[in-house]
Amino acid sequence: MQPDRRRIIAAACGLALLGLTGCQRGPRFNTTDISGSDMGAALRLTDHHGRPRTMADFAGKAVVVFFGYTNCPDVCPTSLMMLKEALAALGPDASRVQVLFVSVDPARDTPQQLGAYMQAFDPGFLALSGSDAEIAAVAKAFKVFYEKKGDIAGGHYTIDHTAGCYIFGPDGRTRLFARHGETPERVAADLKLLLAGQ
User: Fold this and answer.
1) CA dihedral in degrees (44, 90, 193, 184; nearest 10)?
2) What stretches pass through the bilayer (predicted)?
3) How many domains, in total, are found in the chain?
């Protein structure tokens, strides 16, 4: 075999190997890639302003969905503060992200209570609620667990619930799951990738 031909074959093999080792794969996200789920299709609730909402209302924006309740002692305020800081890190691109807080405690989380809670973190955040059945259906679609603990009859209870944020791309597709404890910087970096069309 002539030297020139050997070099051509070696180069072709090298390019094929690069393809096999993943050099043409998509971006590497910090959070967990869950692309392919249809979770967002089930989201039909009412925001704290009294307006019915679906994911279609936020077309063109990245959407972050978090389940919780306003009396949560630690996980919910920590997560919402993280999201506030992540959006601050995005600068002007923060206007292209919508945070949705889905209450799993409709008995105590009135629209007024939810509105004040969102205001404490970011006035642009929206809280969503509905009937027990509506919330249960959305939680089931998102595979979210929640359960009351304590004096339920007396209204003095806590709620164990899934802690983490579901992130949708501007095209409305489910893309990522950010576990509780993620840093604002890592979440902001992933949001930047999604907003760039990755």
Assistant:
1) -80
2) none
3) 1
Residue 15 maps to a domain:
no
Look at residue 198 in the predicted model and tell me its pLDDT. 85
Taking the C-alpha atoms of residue 134 and residue 197, their distance in angstroms, rounded to an integer, is 32
19 in a domain, yes or no? Answer: no
Question: Which tokens hold the place of 188?
Answer: 């902001």
* Helix or strand (DSSP H, E) at 40: none
Dist CA 144 CA 148 (whole Å): 14
For residues 47 and 6, give the distance between their C-alpha atoms in angstroms, rounded to a whole number: 66
120 within domain boundaries: yes
pLDDT digits (tens, 9 = 90+) for 42-81: 899 999 999 999 999 999 999 999 999 999 999 999 999 9
Residue 169 included in any domain:
yes
Domain that holds residue 163: 29-195
For residue 7, the one-letter residue type is: R
Q: Is 169 left (phi over 0), alpha (psi -120 to 50) or beta?
A: beta
* Rounded Cα gap, residues 171 and 28, in angstroms: 19
